[in-house]
Amino acid sequence: MAKIEASVDIKSTIDKVWDIVSDLDNEPKYWKGTKEVKNISKEGNKIKREITIAFKDKKCNQEVTLYPKEKIESIFTKGIIEGSKTINISQKEDFVKLEAIWDIKLSGMMGMFTGMISKHIKSGTEQALQSIKDEIE
């Protein structure tokens, strides 16, 4: 498994940051590795969805759990990616820390490319967090 971590400090309130990151339908606007999102079902704070990723337009299924104003946990349940992506938000003195943590690997024979792909994911994650920061500030 590859663990990828990135974070950014945003001069804002936790409410504004949460409004952006919890709008899962708009994920492709910030996360360039996510090309398309299709929600399958929603029950309370849990969403099952299919995403199309930029890597060869592959489809992955996710179960996403929203923990309001705290974190968003996405578990990959089917597709080329196995593992999870967690978005954490926390209010500090005069800023909000927005953090993304991936714990993933590519499935099957693609597993040998996990290290190479993780560099792209880290770069894309840093870009996404900066885009969210730019939108808010």
Write the layout of secondary structure elements.
Blueprint: E1 2-10, H1 14-21, H2 27-30, E2 34-43, E3 46-53, E4 59-67, E5 71-78, E6 81-91, E7 96-106, H3 114-136
Antiparallel strand pairs: 1-7, 2-3, 3-4, 4-5, 5-6, 6-7
Number of distinct beta strands: 7
Low-pLDDT stretches: none
The helix count comes to 3
Rg calc? 14 Å
**Strand-residue fraction?**
over 45%
Q: In angstroms, what separates the terminal alpha carbons?
A: 34 Å
Helix content: 25-40%
Strand order of the largest sheet: 1-7-6-5-4-3-2
Q: How would you sum up the major sheet?
A: 7 strands, antiparallel
The CATH H-level homologous superfamily: START domain
User: Looking at the structure, what is the overall shape?
Assistant: globular
Structural domains: how many: 1
Mean pLDDT: 94
Q: Helix and strand succession?
A: EHHEEEEEEH
Word description of this protein:
By secondary structure, the protein is α+β, with helices and mostly antiparallel strands. The protein has one domain (2-136): Alpha-D-Glucose-1,6-Bisphosphate, Chain A, domain 4, CATH 3.30.530.20. It has helices spanning 14-21, 27-30, 114-136, and strands at 2-10, 34-43, 46-53, 59-67, 71-78, 81-91, 96-106. The protein has a seven-stranded antiparallel sheet, covered by helices on one side. Strand 5 and strand 6 (81-91) form a beta hairpin. The longest helix has 23 residues, at 114-136. The radius of gyration is 14 Å and the shape is globular. It starts with a strand and ends with a helix. The model has no long low-confidence stretch (mean pLDDT 94).
